[in-house]
Amino acid sequence: MSDLVKNVVVVPQEVGALYISTDDVDKAISVTKALLDLGQFAFTKTPLSMGIFGAVGGLIQVILSFSQEEKDPVMEKLGDLEKQIDRLADQMNAKFDDLKAFLTEFNFFVEIINPTSVLMKFTKDVMRHPAKESIDNFRRAYEKHPPIELAYSVISLLEQKTTNPLKMALDADRLKNKVVFDKWFNIIDGVLGEFLFLEAFASGLINEKNPFNSERLTEQSQKLIDTLNKWKDEYLKNESYWPELEKWLREYLEKHTDLNNHKKADEIQKVLDSILTNDAFYLMVFNRFPHPDHYSTYEAASKQLMTLYDVGGCHTVVYRSKTANSVDISELVKMEKEVDSIKTLYAANSNVAINLANNPIFNAGFICMIGQQDEAIRSANCPRREWGPGWWKTANVKGRSDTRKVLAGYL
């Protein structure tokens, strides 16, 4: 739950005739401001806190039984809340439009967007002008298009792979970009959150504080969120991006021969960081045709290695670790210590990496020695380790004044 909303107290179950204060409205304003900071309603961030809007609805009913002063503090707070809700509704309009653009076989505007917009307008009317007339208007709109019914129509579409924009967009994306998943997850999360807000408000305003619809909507929304997270797990484990990455990398290198090794590495690193996968990466971009004394490798996990030699005026190597993001961090620390223990390289052997492999580095799927090749080394998608899914260091070459880099990638 968001730090901005996790401390909000959930709705009191009774709003008595003797209890009229700004407390519930203040809490609702706090939740709304937190949602504004997020840029949308958010089912996954605030499902419990949404109940506070039911208390606000109940409070409005109590207000109507009292003669309110012109500058009553509760009325002023309701006006403040309405302004916040109005801003939030504006932010949500673009998300509904994005869904409409994808769900072309369903009359999304007529069936979903317009009824939801009308309900939001009547909700704001009730907050701005609490009166029997504004509540009656809200009730008629609610009974014509209950939020739970609107939500169920959307959920039914989004449960299916063939009509879910998140699934369709990711399946069409060669490299399974995290941004694509996050964009659609947030849109869906926001739409579900808005429906829950409307249902919660109605429960206090016209449904005698009955939470039945809100509870059912929460259950069904959570099932959909669980489905989206299940799909995410499938993408994280899926290796279909790997051959597509090689195609993309070749195209990129051939089109960017004007860039130096380090600029290429920086741009490729961004792409590797964007892929929706559990794999972690090492990337090297360096000069063509190095002497074995300047570059040699040992590959225990060759299927995890991608090499593009002499493409776009350089050599490019990508190693993917399958376990560095899940293994206990102590295992990576152990590899770090083993690599750090290497003080001197014996270049006369001409294949330093193989010689290192004969004195095994713990769980290394890839070992590389490289130097004097204008090499750019980067790591990607390895949030727990700044230096990537393994370790690398600079070591001296015996009998020389120069150095080489030694890199080991975890299996």
Q: How would you describe what is shown here?
A:
Helix 3 runs antiparallel to helix 4, helix 4 runs antiparallel to helix 6 (147-158) and helix 8 runs antiparallel to helix 9 (212-237). This protein has helices at residues 23-38, 52-64, 73-102, 108-128, 132-144, 147-158, 165-172, 178-205, 212-237, 241-255, 261-274, 329-340, 352-357; strands at 280-286, 295-299, 305-311, 314-321, 344-345, 364-370, 376-380, 390-397, 403-410. With 411 residues, the protein is α+β, with helices and mostly antiparallel strands. Mean pLDDT is 88; it is low at 1-20. The strands form 2 sheets. It has a 5-stranded mixed sheet. It contains 13 helices and 9 strands. The two termini are 34 Å apart. It has 2 domains: 23-237, no CATH class; 241-410, no CATH class. Pfam families: DUF684 (PF05075).
Secondary-structure map with pairings?
Blueprint: H1 23-38, H2 52-64, H3 73-102, H4 108-128, H5 132-144, H6 147-158, H7 165-172, H8 178-205, H9 212-237, H10 241-255, H11 261-274, E1 280-286, E2 295-299, E3 305-311, E4 314-321, H12 329-340, E5 344-345, H13 352-357, E6 364-370, E7 376-380, E8 390-397, E9 403-410
Parallel strand pairs: 5-8
Antiparallel strand pairs: 1-4, 1-7, 2-6, 3-4, 6-9, 8-9
InterPro entries: DUF684
Pfam family, one: DUF684
